[in-house]
Amino acid sequence: MVCPASFGHNPETAGSNAFQNEASESPQFLRAAARGEARDLALALEAAGIAVHLADDVDVPACPDAVFPNNWLSFHADGTLVLYPMLAPNRRLERREALVAEACERLGFVERRRIDLTAHERDGRFLEGTGSLVLDHVQRVAYAAQSARTDRGLVEEWARQMDYEPLCFEALDEQGAPYYHTNVLLWIGTRAAVLCSEALVAADRERVRARLRASGRELLEIDRALVRAFAGNLLELEWRDEEEGSGTVLVMSATARAALPAGLMRHLHAAVDAVVDVAVPTIERVGGGSVRCMLAEVPVRRA
């Protein structure tokens, strides 16, 4: 996680992210609110047994979206670290080698291979990490909703290098615009998956649903209104302890928790060992992303 230094409305990303809203509050207020929300999420995860490294952002260069590190890097269980091409020039400034080294040291990740896709920015081709890619690590399928930030060819290149099956599709909001990231409308956990299938174009809808069902997971449906409340922007994490074993934790925002119907929440509770929800209203309203976007998960290497 990154505790932001310059959080605020980002005009360079607003054109492709309909979840963003301009703010009337002062820059000082927004910065303090976002920093507090990031700290609250880190503390809630630590209380649930999840190891967290909350890195401090730098003041210069100013990065209004630094709180969303999952878009520019991803860590993988085989020791691979991937760097991604970002649409907004001011988001490319978030990539800092010092932050990568710090995260690896604090969380025990040993980098064995690096895939750097950032050169594609020069050609206007983008793939924004686990915002663009929702990964089924068991079946090794990379789901991706095509958009200005998610290039189909780069999805296929990533999948080839990582030995995943690429599954691309189109998903549109109420105004007929592509959703900016896949992870607002699709979540894949160990025992269940959440999908807004009504957003998928007719030619892709049943293909995606069938592939998710074939994985053996329970498929839970949400609608576009729930997507707007970040109810698809979830992440399942795992805690491990030598004496107590391990357990799964589903993290979501308080906004998502309040919007999800009781029946859907019962299914989500049954799919994991614990559910954690944290209020991040400033980050959601102004930044246009929620808790999943704030987390660049680091896998534990198993013996």
Task: Determine the CATH superfamily.
Answer: L-arginine/glycine Amidinotransferase, Chain A
Please tell me the CATH architecture by its name. 5-stranded Propeller
Query: What proportion strand?
Result: 15-25%
Task: Return Rg in Å.
Answer: 18 Å
Question: How would you describe this structure to a colleague?
Answer:
The chain has a single domain, classed as L-arginine/glycine Amidinotransferase, Chain A. The chain has helices at 11-14, 27-47, 89-92, 97-107, 129-132, 152-162, 202-214, 224-228, 254-259, 262-271, 281-287; strands at residues 2-3, 55-56, 73-75, 80-83, 113-116, 133-136, 141-145, 165-169, 186-188, 192-195, 218-221, 235-241, 245-253, 274-278. The chain contains eleven helices and 14 strands. It starts with a strand and ends in a 16-residue tail after the last helix. It is globular. The strands form five sheets. It has a three-stranded mixed sheet, with no helix packed on it. The protein has a three-stranded mixed sheet with strand order 6-7-8, with helices on both faces.
